[in-house]
Amino acid sequence: MALLILAHPNFNKSIANKTIVERLQKSNLDIEIRNLHALYPDFSIDVQAEQDALLRHNTVVFQYPFYWYNMPAILKQWFDYVFVHQFAYGLQGDKLKGKNFIPSFTVGAFEDQYRTLEKHHFRVLEFCKNLEQTAYFAQMNYIDPVYFHGTSGVSGYGEYEIKDRAERHAEKLIALLSEMQ
Ligand SMILES: Cc1cc2nc3c(=O)[nH]c(=O)nc-3n(C[C@H](O)[C@H](O)[C@H](O)COP(=O)(O)O)c2cc1C
């Protein structure tokens, strides 16, 4: 029913993203999970397989940790190779038209640091403009990102708190996906 593209370079050591994915797997929703690093450890994306996966679903969730105010490199590689001319855009490039595009990510630093005069200067949503426009360009239905803060081991919450917030994040996603069924 939904496709989840998981991009985490070190998923075994993940707390936040792993908790989210495990919670989704325990839900009764039918979600196809594609773990990009497990599938493509050398970054060589199977474009046909990824496009076929997209065609099977009406909703795509992009699940990842926020890296350098953006997505992990393998997910950028995925977009560069999979969202191509005559598939995602162009005269015949309407294959993704009307599908839901849901960013779902975890942010290391706390929200109060994502302010003009603070360390990270911009709101998280300001860093998501590229995602939003990518979705529009592919004629997809952009859904506001689901995310939470404080997942960094160094300057975030403790493990228990991160897991708790990740569970709540997953509940939000489950509610969102259930509405879309
Ligand atoms: C390469 C790298 C870049 C990161 N960049 C950011 C960043 O730009 N902003 C931020 O708040 N956290 C940043 N972080 C922290 C991650 O977002 C955080 O570790 C992640 O959300 C934790 O999720 P996990 O438990 O699933 O690994 C970065 C971490 C790494 C390893």
Notes on the protein architecture:
By secondary structure, this protein is α/β, with parallel strands linked by helices. The protein has one domain (2-180): 3-Layer(aba) Sandwich (Rossmann fold), CATH 3.40.50. Helices cover 36% and strands 17% of the residues. The protein is built from six helices and six strands. It has helices at residues 16-26, 36-39, 47-55, 73-82, 129-137, 159-180; strands spanning 2-6, 31-35, 59-65, 100-107, 141-142, 146-149. Strands 1, 2, 3, 4, 5 and 6 form a six-stranded parallel sheet that branches. Strand 1 (2-6), helix 1 (16-26) and strand 2 form a beta-alpha-beta unit. Helix 1 crosses helix 6 (159-180). The termini are close together. Bound molecules: flavin mononucleotide. Flavin mononucleotide binds next to helix 1 and strand 4.
What's the assembly state of these chains?
Answer: single chain
Number of E strands: 6
The CATH architecture assignment turns out to be: 3-Layer(aba) Sandwich
Cα gyration radius (Å): 16 Å
Instruction: Work out the strand percent.
Output: 15-25%
Task: Itemize the secondary structure elements and their pairings.
Elements: E1 2-6, H1 16-26, E2 31-35, H2 36-39, H3 47-55, E3 59-65, H4 73-82, E4 100-107, H5 129-137, E5 141-142, E6 146-149, H6 159-180
Parallel strand pairs: 1-2, 1-3, 3-4, 4-5, 4-6
The structure holds flavin mononucleotide.
Summarize the structure.
This protein has six helices and six strands. By secondary structure, the protein is of the alpha/beta class.
